[in-house]
Design goal:
The structure is a single chain. By secondary structure, the protein is mainly alpha-helical. 70% of the residues lie in helices and 0% in strands. The chain has helices at 23-26, 28-41, 65-91, 95-136, 147-184, 189-197, 199-202, 209-252, 261-306, 314-346, 348-353, 362-373, 388-408. The N and C termini lie far apart (80 Å). One of its GO terms (molecular function) is sweet taste receptor activity.
Length: 426
Protein backbone atom coordinates (compact mmCIF):
# COMPACT_ATOMS: atom_id res chain seq x y z
CA UNK A 1 0.00 0.00 0.00
CA UNK A 2 1.28 3.47 -0.91
CA UNK A 3 1.97 5.83 1.96
CA UNK A 4 0.49 8.87 0.19
CA UNK A 5 -2.95 7.29 -0.21
CA UNK A 6 -5.61 9.61 1.18
CA UNK A 7 -8.11 7.57 3.14
CA UNK A 8 -11.83 8.28 2.84
CA UNK A 9 -12.17 9.05 6.55
CA UNK A 10 -10.14 12.24 6.27
CA UNK A 11 -12.17 15.28 7.26
CA UNK A 12 -9.84 18.02 5.98
CA UNK A 13 -10.02 18.77 2.25
CA UNK A 14 -6.88 18.32 0.19
CA UNK A 15 -7.19 21.92 -1.04
CA UNK A 16 -8.06 24.47 1.64
CA UNK A 17 -11.39 26.03 0.68
CA UNK A 18 -12.08 29.72 0.34
CA UNK A 19 -13.64 31.68 3.14
CA UNK A 20 -17.36 31.35 3.72
CA UNK A 21 -19.22 32.27 0.55
CA UNK A 22 -20.77 35.72 0.65
CA UNK A 23 -22.99 36.38 -2.39
CA UNK A 24 -22.84 40.13 -1.82
CA UNK A 25 -19.07 40.15 -2.51
CA UNK A 26 -17.97 36.79 -3.97
CA UNK A 27 -20.57 35.96 -6.61
CA UNK A 28 -20.81 36.68 -10.32
CA UNK A 29 -23.86 38.79 -9.47
CA UNK A 30 -21.85 41.09 -7.19
CA UNK A 31 -18.99 41.29 -9.70
CA UNK A 32 -21.30 42.17 -12.59
CA UNK A 33 -23.37 44.65 -10.55
CA UNK A 34 -21.44 47.85 -11.41
CA UNK A 35 -21.01 46.77 -15.04
CA UNK A 36 -24.74 46.10 -15.49
CA UNK A 37 -25.62 49.38 -13.78
CA UNK A 38 -23.28 51.17 -16.19
CA UNK A 39 -24.85 49.33 -19.13
CA UNK A 40 -28.33 50.31 -17.99
CA UNK A 41 -27.33 53.98 -18.19
CA UNK A 42 -27.04 53.30 -21.92
CA UNK A 43 -30.28 51.25 -22.09
CA UNK A 44 -28.58 47.82 -22.07
CA UNK A 45 -29.63 44.76 -20.00
CA UNK A 46 -32.84 46.20 -18.46
CA UNK A 47 -33.08 43.76 -15.54
CA UNK A 48 -34.36 44.80 -12.09
CA UNK A 49 -32.82 44.09 -8.68
CA UNK A 50 -29.20 44.50 -9.77
CA UNK A 51 -28.20 46.48 -6.67
CA UNK A 52 -29.58 43.81 -4.30
CA UNK A 53 -27.20 41.59 -2.26
CA UNK A 54 -27.72 38.34 -4.18
CA UNK A 55 -29.13 36.95 -7.42
CA UNK A 56 -32.42 35.80 -5.87
CA UNK A 57 -33.67 39.41 -6.04
CA UNK A 58 -33.12 39.69 -9.79
CA UNK A 59 -36.22 39.84 -11.94
CA UNK A 60 -37.33 40.98 -15.36
CA UNK A 61 -40.55 42.84 -15.97
CA UNK A 62 -41.91 44.62 -19.01
CA UNK A 63 -43.47 47.25 -16.75
CA UNK A 64 -40.39 49.18 -15.69
CA UNK A 65 -38.71 52.50 -16.45
CA UNK A 66 -35.66 50.59 -17.69
CA UNK A 67 -37.71 48.90 -20.39
CA UNK A 68 -39.30 52.22 -21.29
CA UNK A 69 -35.87 53.83 -21.59
CA UNK A 70 -34.63 50.91 -23.71
CA UNK A 71 -37.69 51.20 -25.94
CA UNK A 72 -37.16 54.95 -26.48
CA UNK A 73 -33.50 54.40 -27.42
CA UNK A 74 -34.49 51.51 -29.68
CA UNK A 75 -36.99 53.76 -31.45
CA UNK A 76 -34.29 56.39 -31.93
CA UNK A 77 -31.82 53.91 -33.40
CA UNK A 78 -34.55 52.43 -35.58
CA UNK A 79 -35.28 55.91 -36.95
CA UNK A 80 -31.59 56.42 -37.74
CA UNK A 81 -31.53 53.06 -39.54
CA UNK A 82 -34.56 54.02 -41.62
CA UNK A 83 -32.92 57.33 -42.57
CA UNK A 84 -29.84 55.39 -43.70
CA UNK A 85 -31.93 53.06 -45.86
CA UNK A 86 -33.77 56.00 -47.45
CA UNK A 87 -30.49 57.73 -48.24
CA UNK A 88 -29.07 54.61 -49.89
CA UNK A 89 -32.19 54.28 -52.04
CA UNK A 90 -32.01 57.95 -53.01
CA UNK A 91 -28.28 58.36 -53.66
CA UNK A 92 -26.97 54.86 -54.24
CA UNK A 93 -24.89 52.48 -52.17
CA UNK A 94 -21.20 52.77 -51.39
CA UNK A 95 -18.96 51.40 -48.65
CA UNK A 96 -19.32 54.49 -46.41
CA UNK A 97 -23.13 54.46 -46.46
CA UNK A 98 -23.24 50.70 -46.03
CA UNK A 99 -20.90 50.90 -43.04
CA UNK A 100 -23.14 53.48 -41.36
CA UNK A 101 -26.17 51.29 -42.03
CA UNK A 102 -24.45 48.20 -40.62
CA UNK A 103 -23.44 50.16 -37.51
CA UNK A 104 -27.01 51.19 -36.65
CA UNK A 105 -28.53 47.87 -37.73
CA UNK A 106 -26.06 46.11 -35.42
CA UNK A 107 -27.21 48.36 -32.57
CA UNK A 108 -30.82 47.35 -33.24
CA UNK A 109 -29.98 43.64 -33.18
CA UNK A 110 -27.85 44.13 -30.05
CA UNK A 111 -30.74 45.82 -28.24
CA UNK A 112 -33.07 42.92 -29.05
CA UNK A 113 -30.51 40.30 -27.98
CA UNK A 114 -29.78 42.00 -24.66
CA UNK A 115 -33.47 42.39 -23.83
CA UNK A 116 -33.82 38.67 -24.48
CA UNK A 117 -30.79 38.01 -22.29
CA UNK A 118 -32.26 40.22 -19.57
CA UNK A 119 -35.31 37.95 -19.45
CA UNK A 120 -33.01 34.95 -18.86
CA UNK A 121 -30.42 36.66 -16.68
CA UNK A 122 -32.15 36.16 -13.26
CA UNK A 123 -32.30 32.39 -13.75
CA UNK A 124 -28.75 32.20 -15.12
CA UNK A 125 -27.28 34.34 -12.33
CA UNK A 126 -29.08 32.29 -9.67
CA UNK A 127 -27.83 28.99 -11.17
CA UNK A 128 -24.28 30.36 -11.28
CA UNK A 129 -24.51 31.58 -7.68
CA UNK A 130 -25.68 28.17 -6.42
CA UNK A 131 -22.70 26.55 -8.13
CA UNK A 132 -20.33 29.12 -6.63
CA UNK A 133 -21.76 28.45 -3.18
CA UNK A 134 -21.24 24.70 -3.60
CA UNK A 135 -17.70 25.04 -4.95
CA UNK A 136 -16.58 27.35 -2.14
CA UNK A 137 -16.49 24.40 0.26
CA UNK A 138 -13.97 22.54 -1.94
CA UNK A 139 -12.13 25.02 -4.18
CA UNK A 140 -9.81 27.78 -3.15
CA UNK A 141 -9.53 31.04 -5.02
CA UNK A 142 -6.57 30.88 -7.40
CA UNK A 143 -6.03 34.58 -8.05
CA UNK A 144 -5.36 37.05 -5.27
CA UNK A 145 -7.35 39.61 -7.21
CA UNK A 146 -11.08 39.14 -6.78
CA UNK A 147 -13.33 38.61 -9.76
CA UNK A 148 -15.02 41.95 -9.10
CA UNK A 149 -11.66 43.77 -9.15
CA UNK A 150 -10.66 42.11 -12.42
CA UNK A 151 -14.02 43.03 -13.93
CA UNK A 152 -13.55 46.67 -12.93
CA UNK A 153 -10.02 46.78 -14.36
CA UNK A 154 -11.04 45.26 -17.70
CA UNK A 155 -14.13 47.48 -17.92
CA UNK A 156 -12.12 50.61 -17.11
CA UNK A 157 -9.51 49.80 -19.77
CA UNK A 158 -12.02 48.96 -22.51
CA UNK A 159 -14.32 51.90 -21.78
CA UNK A 160 -11.42 54.35 -21.49
CA UNK A 161 -10.03 53.25 -24.85
CA UNK A 162 -13.52 53.45 -26.35
CA UNK A 163 -13.91 56.98 -24.95
CA UNK A 164 -10.57 58.03 -26.41
CA UNK A 165 -11.50 56.47 -29.76
CA UNK A 166 -14.85 58.27 -29.85
CA UNK A 167 -13.24 61.55 -28.76
CA UNK A 168 -10.70 61.24 -31.55
CA UNK A 169 -13.54 60.62 -34.02
CA UNK A 170 -15.37 63.74 -32.84
CA UNK A 171 -12.18 65.81 -33.03
CA UNK A 172 -11.42 64.59 -36.53
CA UNK A 173 -14.97 65.36 -37.69
CA UNK A 174 -14.89 68.77 -36.00
CA UNK A 175 -11.68 69.70 -37.82
CA UNK A 176 -13.34 68.74 -41.11
CA UNK A 177 -16.37 70.86 -40.16
CA UNK A 178 -14.11 73.84 -39.40
CA UNK A 179 -12.42 73.51 -42.79
CA UNK A 180 -15.76 73.21 -44.54
CA UNK A 181 -17.26 76.18 -42.64
CA UNK A 182 -14.21 78.31 -43.43
CA UNK A 183 -14.43 77.40 -47.11
CA UNK A 184 -18.12 78.32 -47.22
CA UNK A 185 -17.71 81.41 -45.09
CA UNK A 186 -20.16 79.94 -42.59
CA UNK A 187 -19.67 80.81 -38.91
CA UNK A 188 -21.88 77.99 -37.60
CA UNK A 189 -19.23 75.30 -37.14
CA UNK A 190 -21.42 73.21 -34.83
CA UNK A 191 -24.22 73.18 -37.39
CA UNK A 192 -21.77 72.22 -40.13
CA UNK A 193 -20.44 69.44 -37.90
CA UNK A 194 -23.87 67.89 -37.25
CA UNK A 195 -24.98 68.18 -40.89
CA UNK A 196 -21.78 66.64 -42.23
CA UNK A 197 -21.78 63.84 -39.66
CA UNK A 198 -25.42 62.89 -40.10
CA UNK A 199 -26.32 63.67 -43.73
CA UNK A 200 -28.85 60.81 -43.78
CA UNK A 201 -30.97 62.78 -41.31
CA UNK A 202 -30.47 66.40 -42.30
CA UNK A 203 -30.81 65.76 -46.02
CA UNK A 204 -34.40 64.72 -45.25
CA UNK A 205 -35.31 67.35 -42.66
CA UNK A 206 -34.30 70.84 -41.67
CA UNK A 207 -31.43 71.28 -39.23
CA UNK A 208 -31.73 72.75 -35.76
CA UNK A 209 -29.37 72.50 -32.79
CA UNK A 210 -31.67 70.36 -30.64
CA UNK A 211 -32.07 67.87 -33.48
CA UNK A 212 -28.30 67.69 -33.88
CA UNK A 213 -27.80 67.03 -30.16
CA UNK A 214 -30.54 64.38 -30.18
CA UNK A 215 -29.06 62.55 -33.17
CA UNK A 216 -25.57 62.74 -31.68
CA UNK A 217 -26.88 61.29 -28.41
CA UNK A 218 -28.30 58.32 -30.29
CA UNK A 219 -24.93 57.92 -31.99
CA UNK A 220 -23.13 57.90 -28.62
CA UNK A 221 -25.54 55.28 -27.24
CA UNK A 222 -24.98 53.15 -30.34
CA UNK A 223 -21.20 53.45 -29.96
CA UNK A 224 -21.41 52.27 -26.33
CA UNK A 225 -23.62 49.37 -27.39
CA UNK A 226 -21.08 48.27 -30.00
CA UNK A 227 -18.24 48.30 -27.45
CA UNK A 228 -20.29 46.75 -24.67
CA UNK A 229 -20.99 43.59 -26.69
CA UNK A 230 -17.28 42.73 -26.72
CA UNK A 231 -16.77 43.81 -23.11
CA UNK A 232 -19.64 41.63 -21.92
CA UNK A 233 -18.26 38.56 -23.71
CA UNK A 234 -14.80 39.17 -22.23
CA UNK A 235 -16.20 39.39 -18.69
CA UNK A 236 -18.36 36.29 -18.99
CA UNK A 237 -15.39 34.37 -20.43
CA UNK A 238 -13.16 35.49 -17.54
CA UNK A 239 -15.76 34.30 -15.01
CA UNK A 240 -16.24 30.92 -16.68
CA UNK A 241 -12.51 30.29 -17.10
CA UNK A 242 -12.00 31.24 -13.45
CA UNK A 243 -14.38 28.49 -12.33
CA UNK A 244 -12.45 25.90 -14.37
CA UNK A 245 -9.17 27.32 -13.07
CA UNK A 246 -10.23 26.73 -9.47
CA UNK A 247 -11.04 23.09 -10.24
CA UNK A 248 -7.73 22.68 -12.08
CA UNK A 249 -5.89 24.13 -9.08
CA UNK A 250 -7.52 21.52 -6.88
CA UNK A 251 -6.50 18.76 -9.29
CA UNK A 252 -2.92 20.06 -9.50
CA UNK A 253 -2.61 19.92 -5.72
CA UNK A 254 -3.02 16.10 -5.79
CA UNK A 255 -0.87 15.48 -8.90
CA UNK A 256 0.82 12.05 -8.67
CA UNK A 257 -0.96 11.28 -5.40
CA UNK A 258 -3.18 8.24 -4.98
CA UNK A 259 -6.70 9.41 -4.22
CA UNK A 260 -9.75 7.32 -3.28
CA UNK A 261 -12.61 6.66 -5.67
CA UNK A 262 -15.00 9.01 -3.89
CA UNK A 263 -12.60 11.93 -4.37
CA UNK A 264 -12.42 11.39 -8.13
CA UNK A 265 -16.20 11.03 -8.29
CA UNK A 266 -16.57 14.38 -6.56
CA UNK A 267 -14.03 16.06 -8.88
CA UNK A 268 -15.69 14.60 -11.96
CA UNK A 269 -19.07 15.77 -10.71
CA UNK A 270 -17.70 19.30 -10.29
CA UNK A 271 -16.30 19.21 -13.82
CA UNK A 272 -19.64 18.01 -15.14
CA UNK A 273 -21.42 20.87 -13.34
CA UNK A 274 -19.04 23.35 -15.00
CA UNK A 275 -19.63 21.76 -18.41
CA UNK A 276 -23.39 22.07 -17.87
CA UNK A 277 -23.01 25.70 -16.76
CA UNK A 278 -20.92 26.49 -19.88
CA UNK A 279 -23.59 25.00 -22.14
CA UNK A 280 -26.31 26.94 -20.32
CA UNK A 281 -24.37 30.18 -20.68
CA UNK A 282 -23.66 29.42 -24.32
CA UNK A 283 -27.34 28.81 -25.04
CA UNK A 284 -28.06 32.34 -23.79
CA UNK A 285 -25.16 34.27 -25.36
CA UNK A 286 -24.24 32.30 -28.51
CA UNK A 287 -26.19 34.75 -30.68
CA UNK A 288 -24.25 37.63 -29.11
CA UNK A 289 -20.98 35.79 -29.84
CA UNK A 290 -21.99 35.39 -33.49
CA UNK A 291 -22.98 39.05 -33.74
CA UNK A 292 -19.68 40.17 -32.20
CA UNK A 293 -17.50 38.13 -34.55
CA UNK A 294 -19.56 39.01 -37.62
CA UNK A 295 -19.56 42.77 -37.02
CA UNK A 296 -15.91 42.91 -35.98
CA UNK A 297 -14.93 40.95 -39.08
CA UNK A 298 -16.92 43.36 -41.26
CA UNK A 299 -15.50 46.52 -39.70
CA UNK A 300 -11.92 45.23 -39.83
CA UNK A 301 -12.30 44.52 -43.56
CA UNK A 302 -13.91 47.93 -44.18
CA UNK A 303 -11.25 49.83 -42.24
CA UNK A 304 -8.54 47.98 -44.14
CA UNK A 305 -10.28 49.00 -47.35
CA UNK A 306 -10.46 52.65 -46.24
CA UNK A 307 -6.74 52.56 -45.43
CA UNK A 308 -6.02 52.49 -49.18
CA UNK A 309 -7.55 55.96 -49.51
CA UNK A 310 -5.34 59.01 -48.83
CA UNK A 311 -5.92 60.43 -45.34
CA UNK A 312 -5.48 64.18 -45.02
CA UNK A 313 -4.19 65.71 -41.78
CA UNK A 314 -2.21 64.33 -38.85
CA UNK A 315 -5.25 64.22 -36.53
CA UNK A 316 -7.22 62.10 -39.00
CA UNK A 317 -4.25 59.74 -39.45
CA UNK A 318 -3.84 59.34 -35.69
CA UNK A 319 -7.57 58.72 -35.28
CA UNK A 320 -7.64 56.13 -38.06
CA UNK A 321 -4.61 54.24 -36.71
CA UNK A 322 -5.92 54.29 -33.13
CA UNK A 323 -9.43 53.26 -34.17
CA UNK A 324 -8.17 50.38 -36.29
CA UNK A 325 -5.73 49.24 -33.59
CA UNK A 326 -8.43 49.35 -30.93
CA UNK A 327 -10.77 47.32 -33.13
CA UNK A 328 -8.09 44.69 -33.72
CA UNK A 329 -7.16 44.58 -30.03
CA UNK A 330 -10.80 44.25 -28.95
CA UNK A 331 -11.49 41.47 -31.45
CA UNK A 332 -8.34 39.61 -30.39
CA UNK A 333 -9.23 40.01 -26.70
CA UNK A 334 -12.73 38.59 -27.22
CA UNK A 335 -11.29 35.64 -29.16
CA UNK A 336 -8.56 34.80 -26.64
CA UNK A 337 -10.65 35.28 -23.50
CA UNK A 338 -13.52 33.22 -24.92
CA UNK A 339 -11.01 30.57 -26.06
CA UNK A 340 -9.59 30.40 -22.53
CA UNK A 341 -12.78 28.60 -21.43
CA UNK A 342 -11.98 25.79 -23.86
CA UNK A 343 -8.29 25.83 -22.86
CA UNK A 344 -9.05 25.49 -19.15
CA UNK A 345 -11.52 22.67 -19.78
CA UNK A 346 -8.72 20.57 -21.31
CA UNK A 347 -6.15 21.03 -18.52
CA UNK A 348 -7.37 18.14 -16.31
CA UNK A 349 -6.31 15.64 -19.00
CA UNK A 350 -2.52 15.63 -18.27
CA UNK A 351 -3.23 15.19 -14.56
CA UNK A 352 -5.57 12.27 -15.22
CA UNK A 353 -3.03 10.64 -17.52
CA UNK A 354 -0.53 10.66 -14.63
CA UNK A 355 -2.86 9.01 -12.09
CA UNK A 356 -1.08 6.04 -10.53
CA UNK A 357 -2.34 2.56 -11.31
CA UNK A 358 -3.28 1.97 -7.68
CA UNK A 359 -5.89 4.74 -7.74
CA UNK A 360 -6.89 4.53 -11.40
CA UNK A 361 -10.47 3.34 -11.33
CA UNK A 362 -13.81 3.69 -13.05
CA UNK A 363 -14.30 7.32 -11.95
CA UNK A 364 -10.90 8.40 -13.27
CA UNK A 365 -11.60 6.61 -16.55
CA UNK A 366 -14.99 8.33 -16.91
CA UNK A 367 -13.45 11.69 -15.97
CA UNK A 368 -10.68 11.31 -18.57
CA UNK A 369 -13.14 10.23 -21.23
CA UNK A 370 -15.30 13.32 -20.66
CA UNK A 371 -12.33 15.70 -20.70
CA UNK A 372 -10.90 14.32 -23.95
CA UNK A 373 -14.15 13.88 -25.88
CA UNK A 374 -16.47 16.64 -24.65
CA UNK A 375 -16.11 19.93 -26.52
CA UNK A 376 -16.64 22.56 -23.82
CA UNK A 377 -16.52 26.03 -25.32
CA UNK A 378 -18.52 29.09 -26.20
CA UNK A 379 -19.96 29.04 -29.71
CA UNK A 380 -21.49 31.32 -32.29
CA UNK A 381 -24.94 29.72 -32.41
CA UNK A 382 -23.18 26.34 -32.97
CA UNK A 383 -21.74 27.57 -36.28
CA UNK A 384 -18.25 27.66 -34.75
CA UNK A 385 -16.57 27.04 -31.42
CA UNK A 386 -14.36 29.77 -29.99
CA UNK A 387 -10.94 28.17 -29.62
CA UNK A 388 -7.41 29.46 -30.17
CA UNK A 389 -7.36 28.05 -33.68
CA UNK A 390 -10.33 30.28 -34.52
CA UNK A 391 -8.06 33.35 -34.28
CA UNK A 392 -6.00 32.11 -37.23
CA UNK A 393 -9.16 31.19 -39.11
CA UNK A 394 -10.55 34.71 -38.66
CA UNK A 395 -7.23 36.22 -39.77
CA UNK A 396 -7.27 34.10 -42.92
CA UNK A 397 -10.88 35.07 -43.60
CA UNK A 398 -10.01 38.77 -43.27
CA UNK A 399 -7.22 38.43 -45.83
CA UNK A 400 -9.50 36.56 -48.24
CA UNK A 401 -12.38 39.04 -48.04
CA UNK A 402 -10.01 42.01 -48.19
CA UNK A 403 -8.62 40.80 -51.50
CA UNK A 404 -12.17 40.48 -52.84
CA UNK A 405 -13.14 43.95 -51.57
CA UNK A 406 -10.06 45.57 -53.07
CA UNK A 407 -10.69 43.87 -56.41
CA UNK A 408 -14.38 44.70 -56.72
CA UNK A 409 -14.60 47.93 -54.71
CA UNK A 410 -16.19 50.68 -56.78
CA UNK A 411 -15.37 53.54 -54.40
CA UNK A 412 -13.04 55.97 -56.08
CA UNK A 413 -10.05 57.21 -54.15
CA UNK A 414 -10.46 60.96 -53.82
CA UNK A 415 -7.55 63.32 -53.48
CA UNK A 416 -8.27 64.83 -50.08
CA UNK A 417 -5.61 67.50 -50.38
CA UNK A 418 -8.26 69.76 -51.92
CA UNK A 419 -10.06 71.77 -49.22
CA UNK A 420 -13.44 71.39 -50.96
CA UNK A 421 -13.40 67.71 -50.03
CA UNK A 422 -14.04 68.69 -46.42
CA UNK A 423 -17.55 69.71 -47.53
CA UNK A 424 -18.17 66.61 -49.59
CA UNK A 425 -20.60 64.09 -48.13
CA UNK A 426 -20.04 60.49 -49.16
Amino acid sequence: MKTDLVVPEMSVPVVPPSETFDPSTDSLHSSMRPIIMLAQCFSMLPVCGVNKPDASYLRFTWRSLKILYAAVVFLGVFTMTVFNVLRMFATGVNSTKMTTFVFYATTLVTAVLFVRLARQWPCLALTWEKLEREFTSRHRRVSRTTLAARFKIVTAVVMLLALVEHGAAVLSAYISAMECATHRGDMDIIGTYFQSQFPQVFSKMSYSLWKGILVDTINILSTFSWNFVDLFLILISIALADQFRQLNSRLNSIREKAMPEWWWAEARNDYNHLATLTRKVDSHISSIVLLSFATNLYFICIQLLFSFNPIRGIVRKIYFCFSFGFLLARTTAVSLYAASVHDESLLPAPILYNVSSSSYGNEVSRFLSQVTTDNISLTGMKFFSVTRSLVLTVAGTIVTYELVLVQFNSVQQVDQSNITNACEVR
